[in-house]
């Protein structure tokens, strides 16, 4: 049974249609990404799923519960990290965690969460004295202290330095390994590509595309290109017969091969069989960025 | 609801970490009492103060200032800042409704008010021989109604203010006229009758008069109690109607 089921969700603000008939499901233990430009309706859609807003039409179920009618019960089982919220300046890190843990029926040990998110040293620091990254980690910790079955994380790594981002990704993978379903609203392509099992790209209140990150890339830029310089002469004809290979051409010392799927693996294996060493091997990077630009017709603004 | 005591405890700690509210609400009224109470003759009944002693009058004024500061300054600026900073909204995604934080703030301010009044009564009595309020139940009722009317206005300010600073600004614009018409700067007894009549229709004016009457052993006038109750109901209803959580 899916953990989240959204069917035909519509939300209007006055005459403005923020979410226009969106449907998706999220399975247990999945990390589901929501991408899209500002104003695409992704936050509104997620807020309807969390029970913060009442949909104008459509059905939403989370863990089998109606987010509006069963709100109090649902909020026992989900954890939400919101964007642009604060805590009182004077509250200490441990007080915030202990207080939030006390809200839940079956919380995690808040001291453990404190250690896990690297806040042990800041235990007695006041909120106003924390750095941006520390505040961010505290908010994630607050979202997870209630031992949720589903975690909603909005702009997970905003304000974190590169090292802290990677550490955060590893922790999110660990959370998923514990069976927690994660919904990730993000602006960062690399993050979505690294973490998400499936991604929905929002555009103008609708879902423009939904697939695995690799699937989205393949939909849009199916062809990939590899380039190398062979260290010895060989018969390029052996490459053209390989699965997925489309074109081969030579320019000077270099050979360029285009293809789809895992053709690059086949090419390198064939070269190895021919005992041909290569130099300057490059596989052209295709990223979710390219797919995003192609699908929404715009570049991604940070 | 189990969360309320915990929230109340944390909110009390936060209040104690802020310096200026403590100064404003606790130290100022006490300072006034100690300063003016020490003047020669302040322990004698004074006809210009309706028969109350100078020290007794200052103790009552101190209570009025504290209640006004709590109701029109502290409560609205804290709540509006909590909304502005998304703290109420954040609570909305936890099992605890954001209303719990509002309730905790009201209770915390009520407790502060009771403490200030108790301290003024005890210090006035021990240091300057001012009587403990002689009609205690009536005094208690008058104090509760004063708080109810001022806190309801404070909640209304919190409801309509765009931000924490906005609430502080609106609170201040209400604060000083309240003190003026309430008889804090000029005793009610020596006010021109027009001012006195206006003052009687303000929450602090009515409240201070009712508290002072009960303090001296007189029956508070029903009109003053009714005026405060009316403020509490009207402002409270409007606050509930207009309050936004985000």
Which helices and strands appear, and what pairs or packs with what?
The complex is a heterodimer of chains A (about 300) and B (about 250).
Chain A: E1 4-13, E2 16-26, E3 31-35, H1 42-50, E4 57-62, H2 71-77, E5 78-81, H3 93-102, H4 110-116, H5 132-144, E6 150-154, H6 162-177, E7 181-185, H7 189-195, E8 198-203, E9 206-211, H8 213-220, E10 224-230, H9 237-240, E11 245-251, E12 254-259, H10 263-273, E13 278-283, H11 288-296
Parallel strand pairs in A: 3-7, 3-8, 5-6, 6-7
Antiparallel strand pairs in A: 1-2, 1-4, 8-9, 10-12, 10-13, 11-12
Helix pairs in contact in A: 3-4, 8-11
Chain B: H1 3-17, H2 19-37, H3 54-84, H4 87-91, H5 99-128, H6 136-160, H7 164-182, H8 193-200, H9 203-215, H10 222-242
What does this structure look like?
The complex is a heterodimer of chains A (302) and B (246). By secondary structure, chain A is an alpha/beta fold. In chain A, 33% of the residues lie in helices and 28% in strands. Chain A has eleven helices and 13 strands. In chain A, the strands form three sheets. Chain A has a six-stranded mixed β-sheet with strand order 5-6-7-3-8-9, sandwiched between helices. A four-stranded antiparallel β-sheet of chain A has the order 11-12-10-13, covered by helices on one side. In chain A, strands 2-1-4 form a three-stranded antiparallel β-sheet, with helices on one face. The longest helix of chain A is centred in the middle third of the chain and has 16 residues. Chain A starts with a strand and ends in a 6-residue tail after the last helix. The mean pLDDT of chain A is 89. Chain B starts with a helix and ends with a helix.
Tell me the strand percentage band of chain A: 25-35%
Rg result of chain A: 23 Å
- Beta-strand percentage range of chain B: under 5%
Mean pLDDT of chain A, nearest integer? 89
Uncertain runs of chain A with pLDDT below 50, 5 residues or more? none
Which key features would you list for this structure?
heterodimer; A: 302 residues; alpha/beta; 6-stranded mixed beta sheet; 4-stranded antiparallel beta sheet; globular; B: 246 residues; 76% helix
């Amino acid at each position: 049974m899916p953990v989240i089921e959204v069917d035909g969700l519509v939300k209007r603000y006055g005459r403005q249609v923020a979410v226009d008939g969106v449907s998706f499901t999220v399975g247990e233990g999945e990390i589901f990404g929501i991408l899209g430009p500002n104003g695409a309706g992704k936050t509104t859609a997620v807020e309807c799923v969390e029970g913060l807003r009442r949909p104008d039409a459509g059905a939403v179920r989370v863990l089998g519960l109606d987010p509006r009618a069963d709100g109090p019960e649902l909020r026992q089982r989900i954890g939400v990290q919101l964007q642009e919220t604060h805590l009182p300046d004077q509250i200490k890190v441990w007080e915030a965690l202990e207080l939030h843990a006390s809200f839940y029926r079956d919380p995690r040990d808040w001291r453990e969460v404190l250690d896990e998110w690297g806040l042990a040293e800041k235990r007695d620091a006041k909120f106003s004295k924390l750095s941006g990254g520390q505040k961010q980690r505290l908010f994630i910790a607050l979202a997870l202290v209630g031992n949720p079955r589903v975690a909603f994380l909005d702009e997970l790594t905003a304000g974190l330095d590169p090292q802290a981002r990677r550490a955060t990704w590893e922790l999110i993978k660990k959370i998923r390994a514990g069976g927690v379903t994660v919904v990730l609203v993000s602006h960062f392509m690399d993050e979505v590509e690294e973490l998400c099992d499936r991604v929905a790209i929002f555009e103008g209140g609708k879902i423009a595309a939904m697939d695995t990150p690799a699937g989205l890339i393949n939909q849009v830029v199916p062809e990939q290109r590899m380039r190398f310089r062979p260290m010895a002469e060989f018969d390029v004809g052996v490459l053209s017969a390989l699965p997925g290979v489309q074109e081969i051409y030579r320019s000077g010392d270099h050979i360029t091969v285009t293809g789809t799927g895992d053709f690059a693996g086949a090419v390198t294996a064939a070269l190895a069989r021919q005992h041909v060493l290569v130099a300057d091997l490059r596989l052209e990077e295709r990223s979710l960025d390219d797919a995003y630009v192609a699908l929404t017709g715009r570049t991604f603004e940070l | 609801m189990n969360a309320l005591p915990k929230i109340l405890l944390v909110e009390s700690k936060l209040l104690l970490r802020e310096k200026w509210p403590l100064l404003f609400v606790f130290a100022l009224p006490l300072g006034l009492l100690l300063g003016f109470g020490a003047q020669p003759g302040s322990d004698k009944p004074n006809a210009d103060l309706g028969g109350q002693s100078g020290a007794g009058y200052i103790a009552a004024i101190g209570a009025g200032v504290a209640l006004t500061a709590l109701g029109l300054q502290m409560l609205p600026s804290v709540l509006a800042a909590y909304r502005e900073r998304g703290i109420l909204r954040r609570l909305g995604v936890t099992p605890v409704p954001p209303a719990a934080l509002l309730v905790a703030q009201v209770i915390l301010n009520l407790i502060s008010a009771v403490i200030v009044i108790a301290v003024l009564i005890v210090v006035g009595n021990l240091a300057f021989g001012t009587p403990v309020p002689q009609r205690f139940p009536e005094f208690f009722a008058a104090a509760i109604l004063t708080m109810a009317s001022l806190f309801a206005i404070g909640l209304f300010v919190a409801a309509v203010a765009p931000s924490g600073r906005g609430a502080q600004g609106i609170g201040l614009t209400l604060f000083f006229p309240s003190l003026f018409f309430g008889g804090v700067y000029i005793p009610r007894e020596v006010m021109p009758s027009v001012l006195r009549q206006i003052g009687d229709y303000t929450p602090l004016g009515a409240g201070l008069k009712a508290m002072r009457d009960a303090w001296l052993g007189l029956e508070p006038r029903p009109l003053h109690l009714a005026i405060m109750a009316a403020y509490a109901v009207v402002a409270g209803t409007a606050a509930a109607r207009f309050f936004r959580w985000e």
